[in-house]
## 1
Amino acid sequence: MADPYSLSGKFVVVTGGTRGLGRMVSLAAARGGARVLSVYARNDDAANALAAEASREGLDVAILRADLSGEKGLKSIEEACSARTEERTLCLVHCAATGVHKPVAELTVRHLEWTFAVNVRAFLELTQRLLPRFRAGSAVVAVSSAGAERAVPGYTLVGSSKGALESLARHLAAELAPRGVRVNVLAPGSVPTDAWAAMPDRERRLAEAAARTPRGALVTPDEVALAARFLLSDAAAGIVGHTLVVDGGRRIVE
C-alpha cells in the first residue's frame, strides 16, 4: 500500500513560497516527494537562498517571480503549471499575504484594496485559473491567522481579509468537493517569522503569546509546514472545508 502521507506524484504551487512560512511549506512539500513551484513577488535574495538550499538537498523546487495582484503575474503561474504538471496532481498553498498595520483612523480605501487584492482576490483568481488542471486528489490550502476570529491591535485590514479568506475557502470547498478537490484552511498561531517585522510591539506580543500558550512556547515554522504537508497528502482525504489551527493550544485558554 502506498504511503498516504507521501506527496510523490503531486505538483505543489506555493504562493509567497520563498520567505517565512511559505519557504518552510515549499521545503516540507519537496521533502515529502512533491515537485514544487515557489512563487514570490520581490525579494530576490530570499528566492535565491531557497533555490540554493533546495539544490543542496536535491529537492525539486522551481522558483517563479510573479505579482499576484496583477494579470501578468497570475497568467505566468497558470502557464508554469501548464508546462510542469504533466501527469502529476496539482495542489495549491496560498501563503502570500500583505497588509497595512495602522489604527482604523489612518486606514484608506487604497490600503484595503491592496490588502484584499493579494490576500483574498488572488486566491480566488488563481484557484479559478487552475481549476481546469485540478483533478480528483488535488488539494488547496489557504493560510489564515488568528486575526480572522480575534481582534488584534493594528491588524484590522489583515485580520478582516483573513476572515474573508476563510469564508471563501469554505465556499470553494463545498463546490469543488464533488470533483474530488479538497479545500481547507491552515490557521497558525503566532509564529516568529519576518512577517512580524511590520507589527508594532512585536517582541512584547510574541512573548505574551508564548506565555499564554499551554506548552509555554510558540509554534515553529516547521510545525506549521508539516501541517500543510499533511493537508496536501492523501492522508487528509476526509478533511474538507476545515480550518486546522496550529497554535500549540493558545486558542483553548483565556
## 2
Amino acid sequence: MAFCSKCGSAITEGTAFCSRCGAPASAAAAGGPGPSAAGAMASNVAGLLAYILGFLTGILFLILEPYKNDRFVRFHAFQSIFFNIAIVVFWIVWMIISSVLSIISLGILGILMALIGVLIGLAIFGFWIFLMYKAYNNERFMIPFIGEIAAKQAG
C-alpha cells in the first residue's frame, strides 16, 4: 500500500492524487508515512516544529534546504516568527503600562495587572499549542493580520 508523502494518508492504487490533501500520487512513498527517501520529515511535522522555539525554529526552517521551498512550512515558519514578535512587543507594552499604573496607585493596580498578566500568558500558551495542532493537521490557520503577512512572505 502507498502512503502520501505530504500528509501520510493511505493512497488507493491507480489514483493520481491524494484524496485527503491533493498532493500528486507520484510523490507517494511505499512503506508508510514518515521521512521521504531524501530523509526529510513530513511537511506537517516541520510546520509544527516551526512553532516550538519561536524565532529560532522559524528561521531554521526558512534556511534548511528541503523546507525552504515548501510553501506550507514557509507559511508556518513566517507566522511563528511574526507571532513571537507580536508577543514580545505586547509584553514590553504590558510591562510599561503595569509599571506606570503600579507607581500611580502605590502598588495596588500593579498586583491586579500581574494577575491579569498571568491569565494573558496562559491564553497565549494555549493559542501557541493550538497553532502547533493546526500545523500538524495540515491546516493553514491564519492569525488575523499576522497570518496575512505570513502568507504574503511565504509566496
